[in-house]
């Protein structure tokens, strides 16, 4: 289907060149995307120049597309702008939160299944996106760790993630963060197909039944383990690149860039379709 398809490393990612945005609206292309996401976790299409309409068409063939409550584009409400510039998105203030390893929708009952992100404008400094495969990092744990983690549960909160970006919040900010309810998930997410991944990241605030400090240490240790170079990749964006990922197993973060950077991404989100178990 795609002539130039190169795996990026043994544990994560595949890169495809020579495909334009319009050809990704072919159902066979979408089917191949689905297979590649399952196999590699992160699928990088170089310089597709995909437009919003085609991005939405492709996204709909991959799953149920989330319509964000805020920040959608006028013509395409499914498409959010990701930028630190408040003139480009009402969510600019929250997007510093993307600088810390996270999965999207970790405080939802069912985290989002996938994310599609395309670069309209890139940053001169910073602004790469990094991904880490927690199916692979889980698999490589010792049997002792796997046994210990089997029944642990973790509380995820929006406030924990925002506090990393803004350690000194105002009362008003604290109140806004607290409006997003906390969510408890198992540390290890077991899929119907038997695959397992680690549900960790910036939102992970404590381990249920553990002293706070001990929980923080465990989450910190697992984050450091999972984001080692062997399980991760760093994508340096060119205009028109499109990256699709399995959000349920791929931690990700943006390498910090300036609020005055021209960096502008368009994004769609696929709703989760498998309960956390
Ligand atoms: C996001 C996100 C990463 C980036 O939009 O959820 O993590 O590099 N973006 O902008
Ligand atoms: Mn994200």
From TrEMBL:
UniProt keyword Ribonucleoprotein, yes or no: no
Matches recorded under Gene3D superfamilies: Clavaminate synthase-like
InterPro entries given in the database record: TauD-like_sf, TauD/TfdA-like, TfdA_dioxygenase
Pfam families referenced in this protein's UniProt entry, alphabetically: TauD
Protein keywords: Dioxygenase, Iron, Metal-binding, Oxidoreductase
Domain of life: Bacteria
Cofactor(s) for this UniProt protein: Fe(2+)
TauD/TfdA-like domain mapped to chain residues: 5-269
Transmembrane segments: none
GO molecular function: dioxygenase activity; metal ion binding
Family listed: Belongs to the TfdA dioxygenase family.
Protein name in the entry: Taurine catabolism dioxygenase TauD
């Amino acid at each position: 289907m795609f002539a130039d398809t190169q795996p990026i490393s043994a544990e994560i990612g595949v890169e495809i060149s020579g495909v334009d945005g319009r050809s990704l609206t072919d159902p066979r292309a979408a089917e191949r995307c689905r297979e590649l996401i399952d196999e590699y976790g992160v699928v990088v299409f170089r310089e597709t120049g995909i437009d919003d309409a085609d991005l939405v068409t492709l996204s709909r063939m991959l799953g149920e597309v989330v319509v964000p409550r805020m920040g959608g584009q006028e013509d395409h409400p499914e498409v959010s702008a990701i930028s630190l510039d408040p003139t480009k998105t009402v969510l600019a203030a929250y997007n510093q939160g993307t600088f810390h390893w996270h999965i999207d929708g970790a405080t939802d009952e069912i985290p989002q299944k996938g994310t599609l992100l395309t670069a309209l404008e890139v940053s001169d400094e910073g602004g790469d996106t990094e991904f880490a495969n927690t199916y692979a990092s889980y698999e490589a744990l010792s049997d002792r760790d796997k046994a210990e983690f089997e029944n642990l549960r973790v509380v995820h909160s929006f406030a924990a993630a925002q506090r990393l970006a803004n350690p000194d919040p105002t009362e008003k900010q604290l109140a806004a963060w607290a409006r997003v309810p906390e969510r408890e998930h198992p540390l290890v997410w077991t899929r119907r197909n038997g695959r397992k991944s680690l549900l960790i990241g910036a939102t992970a605030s404590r381990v249920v039944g553990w002293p706070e400090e001990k929980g923080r240490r465990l989450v910190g240790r697992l984050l450091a383990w999972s984001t080692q170079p062997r399980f991760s990749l760093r994508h340096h964006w060119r205009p028109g690149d499109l990256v699709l990922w399995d959000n349920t197993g791929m931690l990700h973060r943006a390498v910090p860039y300036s609020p005055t950077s021209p960096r502008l991404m368009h994004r769609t989100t696929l709703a989760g379709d498998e309960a956390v178990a």
